[in-house]
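Protein modeling request. Please complete all fields; requests missing the sequence field cannot be processed.
Requester role: graduate student
Desired output: 3D structure, token encoding
Chains: 1
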Amino acid sequence: MASNTSHDGTGPRNEQMIANMYGALRSEMNQLYSKITELEMEVSEHSLVMGAIQPLDPSRRCYRMIGGVLVERTIREVLPAVQRNKGVLKKSLPASMKHWKRRKWRLQILN
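Delivered output (111 residues):
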């Protein structure tokens, strides 16, 4: 009986495997890019919030969404948390970009 693959491993099965890997990498790259875009938007939103509440009186009441629950706090309590969250988001961006670039490099190898 003859098989569909040749002895050197370059038959249709190997080509299908490469095509599947290419599709999976492409999908993963798209997901990573979406996540990076989302992180960048969140950093921008945090900057807007910080710019809006910094000049206000620190004892003034404001509202903040925590885990899907809207809570009342003072600007004095909220501003450091927003600054801290923005810092965490900014720190995660380079790692996500590095991961995306690694996937892009692997995808280029398959081309």
